[in-house]
Structures are given as C-alpha cells and as structure tokens.
Specification:
mainly alpha; Arc Repressor Mutant, subunit A; Four Helix Bundle (Hemerythrin (Met), subunit A); elongated; DNA-binding transcription factor activity; transcription regulation; WH_DNA-bd_sf
Length: 244
Amino acid sequence: MTAEAPSATWRRRETLSSQVVRTIAERIKLGDYPRGSKLPTEKALIDELGVSRTVVREAIANLRASGLVSIHHGIGVFVRQDAGVAPFRLGDENLMLVENLVKGLELRIGIESEAAALAADRRTQADIQAMTAACKAMDAAVRRASRDTQADFDFHRAVATASHNEHFFRIFNYLGETLMPRMRLSTHAVDDASLSVHLARVNEEHRAILKAIEARDVEGARAAMRKHLGDSRDRMLERLRQEK
C-alpha cells in the first residue's frame, strides 16, 4: 500500500477539524450546548463524530481562539458566557455619513453624561488638575485657531478617568478616538476667526462641566455634559447644512 503524502493527510485533517468546529459552534448557537455548560468529553466527541483525538483537539483550540469556549485544565471545556457576542465597533466605512456622526454623538451623550455625574461624586484633586490643564490647553488652541482635537479629547478623557470606572474610560477612548477627529474634519473650510469663536464656546462649556464636577454637583455635571454634547451635535448639523 502506497504511503499517503503528509500534505494530503494534513489537508484532510484540517477539513475534518473545520467540520467539527462548525458542528460544535452550531450547537452552541442553537443552545444545545448552553452558555456556561461543559462540553462533552474528548472521548465522547471522538466516538460521536467519528474523528481522531488530534482532530478534536485542533477543533477545540480553534473554538477557544474564536472566543466560544474556555479550557479549564483538569476539569474540561466550557462554553463561554459571552459566546457568540460580537465585539462592539463602529463601521468606519460609513462614519463620515452625517446621520452616523449624529448617532455617534447621541451615543456619547448617553455615556459621557453619566461619566460626568460619577466624576462629580468621585473626583480627586488630580482629576480636577487634569481637566483644568485640558481647558488651559484649549485656551491656547483658541488663540492659534488650531484644528488639532487633542485638547478637546484630553478634557473628555479626564472626565471619563474621574468617573473611576475603567469601563467608561475604555469606551470613551474608543468612541473619542473614532469619532472626534472625523467630526472636526468639517471645520477645514471655516476661517480662523470663526474657528476661534467656535473653540472658545466649546471651552466655555467644558469649564461649566469642570465647575460642576469640582463642586461635586452630580446633577449639574450630568446636565452640563448633556448640554455640551447636545449643542455640539446641533452645531455640527448647522455647519453641514451651511456647507451644502
């Protein structure tokens, strides 16, 4: 009997492994293997699916890499509680559409208003100093009519940090880095004088948020952030209407 080429054996095993991955993933999706439950043993899968131990182990490794299962050594393989939950992301290809920029700001309103309220309750003196420094940096940006978004970003990040909830900080970093530069792109045709007036107004709103946070005014901080981002949304829409 002629020996089979190693590459042919590998291709077949890879195909079988993919089939096992699809079978188990489908069972997880349908709830046959509920979240948090233990998968059948390696031997049970081998016997049921008619494949080798190597194929099953490769399939489990792929399922683990896909975030569907976790391996508890000495105990077994378990379906993850978050199995099949797609990670949140904004579609970059559509982010310049006006309606998507508006939706992004609406999302920021909901998240950052609550972060500001928590910041008013939990802020430290170091947090106040970080927000104050960002406002001063924006004062300099006003004088230069700078189109750089860094001072604006730093202020909002300092508020998120002052919430002392790492989830607010992480989601702000994602939303801020994704949305804020694109929103500022529409200012490229604005003259320097008009831009300075715009930035000064924005920084006044930042200082109102800072004042409420420093005073530990929870409701005031929430309202000031909501007004600031709501006004930013309205200004963006008005500017885009004028550019048409």
